[in-house]
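Board work, copied verbatim: DUF2231 domain-containing protein
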Amino acid sequence: MAAEIPRTPAAFVHPAHAVLLAGGLPLFLGGLLSDIGYAASYQIQWTNFASWLIAGALVFSGLALLWALVDLIRARRRTGRVLIYFVLLLATWVLGFINALVHAKDAWASMPTGLILSAINVILMLAAVWIGFASLRAGDRT
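↓ predict structure ↓
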């Protein structure tokens, strides 16, 4: 007989936290796509779009980061998942802030650094969203 690992539903993400968490990903992705558009066409408006999208993503991810910090402080046991989630959001926000400063420069001066930072931001935010929305876990509850 095979050993069964009991699967228990994890604590669900609060709906407001879910909106904040999920709101940052498309904005960071839009910033990356705007950077790709600028690299392909050299139209300065694409960097303006990227700057505004990154600023919006910083608002959403910053509020999600604050929520994750409160959850980390309130957690009875600091599991690896909660800590990794917080660190991913923190890294995403810090890198996004640096990306916003890079995009504040002249249009071509922000390339290719802005494009690379935008790609890394999308990957980090995608990982944070993935961990934040993980609903089933083997073993005990958080």
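Residues 13-133 form one domain.
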